[in-house]
Design a protein that fits this description.
Layout (H helix, E strand, L loop, with lengths): L1 H21 L1 H4 L8 H23 L3 H7 L2 H26 L3 H23 L5 H21 L4 H20 L3 H25 L10 H8 L1 H16 L4 H7 L2 H13 L6 H48 L21
Helix pairs in contact: 1-11, 1-13, 3-5, 3-9, 3-11, 5-8, 5-9, 6-7, 6-8, 6-13, 6-14, 7-14
C-alpha cells in the first residue's frame, strides 16, 4: 500500500511540475510592461532568495563546501548558469512576442537534440528506432524551415540550450534545489547590477508600475523554484520511463495555449512539421517503453535464476531429487 501511495504521489508531483512549466505562457505576459531582460534579471534574483530560504529550512548547506573545493564543478555550474540564462531569456521573449507555438516546438524536439548530442559528443550508440526518430525530426525541421522561409531558429535555440544544460547538469551531478541555488548565485550579481542600472536610468518597471506588478516580479522566484521542487519529489517516487512520458505535458500545454488561447496561426506546413515531430516522439516513447520492459524482464529472470540456484545449494537438492542431482533452471533471456 505504501508503494502504491508513493507512486500516486510521485505521479501527482510530476504532473504538477510539468503542468506548471506548461502554463508558463500565461504568467510571463502578466509581467508587462517589463521587458524580457528585466523579467529574466528579476527571475534570477528572486530565485536565489527563494531557494536560500528553502535550503535554510531544510538545513542543507554541506554541498557548498564540497562544490567550492572542486574547480571543475564550479566551472560546469558557471556554464550551466550561462546556458540556462539564454534558455530562460529566449523563452520569456518568445512568449511575450507572440511565439508560444514556436517555443513549444523547441521543447518537443529537445529529446531528439539530446539524443543527437549523445551520439556526437558522448559516442553513444543508437538503436534503429532511435535513428529513425532522429531522421524524422530532421525532416520536420526542414519542412518547418521551408514553411517559415527560414529555419525555426527560436525553437532550435531553446532545444539546443536546454540539451546542453541537461548534459552539463549530468556531469555536475548535484541535487536540483542545490543546483538551482548555485546557478542563481552566479547569476545574482550581474542580474542585480542590471536591475540597479535600469533603476538609475528611470527605465525599471519594478515599483513604477504599481505594487501588484512588483509582487508579480518578486513571484518569479517561487514560480521558478516550485516546479523544480515538485520534479525532485517525483523523480524519487516514479520510474524514469514515467518521467519521460510526463515531460511531454509541458510542450503539449504550451502548444495548446498558443493555438487555442493566443490564437497563433497554424498553416498547413506548420501542422505537417509538428506532425512529423510528434511521430518521432511516438517512436522514441515506444522504443523506450519496450526497452524498459525487456530490461525488467531480464532482471526478474536473472533474480529468479539466482534464487533457484541458492535454494538448491542450501538444500543439497530438491524435494523431488533427494540425491542432489542438478536440476536445470531457466536462463535469463532478454526480450522473450
Amino acid at each position: 500500500m505504501k508503494t502504491d501511495d508513493e507512486g500516486r504521489a510521485g505521479l501527482l508531483y510530476g504532473i504538477g511540475a510539468y503542468g506548471i512549466w506548461g502554463l508558463f505562457p500565461l504568467f510571463w505576459p502578466l509581467l508587462e510592461p517589463a521587458g524580457a531582460v528585466e523579467i529574466l534579471a528579476h527571475r534570477m534574483v528572486w530565485s536565489l532568495v527563494v531557494v536560500s530560504i528553502a535550503l535554510a529550512a531544510l538545513r542543507r548547506w554541506g554541498w557548498i563546501r564540497e562544490l567550492l573545493r572542486s574547480p571543475r564543478k564550479l566551472g560546469l555550474i558557471a556554464l550551466a548558469a550561462a546556458v540556462i540564462s539564454v534558455n530562460w531569456g529566449g523563452y520569456i521573449w518568445a512568449v511575450n512576442s507572440g511565439q508560444v507555438v514556436e517555443a513549444s516546438l523547441g521543447y518537443f524536439i529537445n529529446p531528439l537534440v539530446t539524443i543527437a548530442m549523445g551520439v556526437l559528443l558522448l559516442k553513444e550508440r543508437l538503436r534503429p528506432v532511435q535513428w529513425a526518430a532522429v531522421g524524422i525530426g530532421f525532416a520536420a525541421v526542414l519542412v518547418l524551415a521551408i514553411g517559415y522561409g527560414r529555419p525555426p531558429w527560436l525553437s532550435l535555440m531553446l532545444a539546443f540550450s536546454f540539451a546542453v544544460y541537461g548534459l552539463v547538469k549530468k556531469k555536475v551531478n548535484i541535487g536540483g534545489l542545490e543546483s538551482l541555488a548555485a546557478e542563481t548565485a552566479i547569476q545574482f550579481l550581474p542580474a542585480l547590477g542590471y536591475l540597479l542600472w535600469l533603476g538609475s536610468t528611470g527605465e525599471a518597471t519594478f515599483g513604477a508600475a504599481g505594487a501588484g506588478h512588483a509582487a508579480l516580479l518578486a513571484a518569479t522566484g517561487v514560480v521558478t523554484a516550485a516546479p523544480l521542487v515538485c520534479f525532485g519529489a517525483a523523480a524519487i517516487r516514479v520510474p524514469l520511463s514515467t518521467l519521460g512520458l510526463l515531460q511531454y505535458l509541458a510542450p503539449v500545454f504550451q502548444f495548446l495555449l498558443g493555438v487555442v488561447y493566443f490564437h497563433e496561426a497554424m498553416p498547413p506546413e506548420r501542422w505537417a512539421g509538428f506532425s512529423l515531430v510528434w511521430l518521432a516522439l511516438t517512436l522514441l516513447t515506444w522504443d523506450a517503453l519496450r526497452t524498459a520492459h525487456r530490461s525488467r524482464a531480464a532482471i526478474e529472470a536473472a533474480a529468479r535464476a539466482r534464487l533457484s540456484s541458492t535454494e538448491l545449494s542450501a538444500g543439497g537438492g530438491s524435494a523431488d531429487d533427494p540425491e542432489g542431482t542438478p536440476v536445470s533452471t531457466p536462463s535469463a533471456q532478454p526480450g522473450r
